[in-house]
Specification:
Elements: H1 27-51, E1 55-56, H2 58-66, H3 73-88, E2 93-98, E3 101-106, E4 111-117, H4 118-121, E5 131-134
Parallel strand pairs: 1-4, 2-5
Antiparallel strand pairs: 2-3, 3-4
Length: 136
C-alpha cells in the first residue's frame, strides 16, 4: 500500500448535479426563482398602481431602516396625499419634504425611490426633479 500526500489545491470537486463545492445553485433554479419573484413583484406593483396606494422601493425601505427613519401610518398617509397632489399637477419626479425627512418619489408610478434625513439632504444636488412639495 502506498500513501500519497494530497494538498487542498489538488482537490477537484465534482461539479455534476445541482450545486458545486462552493454551494452555488444550478443556474436554472436561480433563473426560475428570479422569474417568479419578478412576476410576483410586477403583479404587486400593478395592484398597488390600480389601488392608488404609495409604494416603497426596496432601496427606499433599506434606506429607512439604515437611517433609523420610522414613519407611522399618519405620516405615510400624508406623504401619499402629497404624492397625489403632485400627480394631479403632472409631476414626474419629485422631492417630498416631510418633517425632518426628504424623499425622492417617482410620481407617475407612485413609488418612493429613496429616503434620507434633511441633514443628509443639506448640500445635496437633486437632478431630474421637476417639483418639490413641503408637507410639514
Amino acid at each position: 500500500m502506498s500513501v500519497a500526500r494530497v494538498g487542498i489545491a489538488d482537490f477537484q470537486p465534482n461539479l455534476s448535479g445541482t450545486g458545486n463545492a462552493r454551494g452555488e445553485i444550478d443556474g436554472r433554479f436561480g433563473q426560475t426563482l428570479d422569474g417568479l419573484l419578478a412576476k410576483q413583484s410586477k403583479h404587486d406593483n400593478l395592484a398597488a398602481e390600480k389601488s392608488g396606494e404609495l409604494r416603497w422601493s426596496r432601496h427606499a425601505t433599506a434606506r429607512l431602516r439604515s437611517r433609523g427613519i420610522e414613519l407611522d401610518e399618519r405620516a405615510q398617509t400624508e406623504i401619499a396625499d402629497a404624492v397625489g397632489q403632485l400627480k394631479g399637477k403632472g409631476a414626474k419626479e419629485s422631492l417630498v419634504l416631510y418633517e425632518e425627512h426628504a424623499f425622492i418619489v417617482g410620481v407617475q408610478r407612485q413609488t418612493v425611490i429613496t429616503a434620507m434625513t434633511r441633514d443628509e439632504a443639506v448640500g445635496s444636488i437633486f437632478t431630474n426633479i421637476d417639483s418639490t412639495i413641503v408637507v410639514r
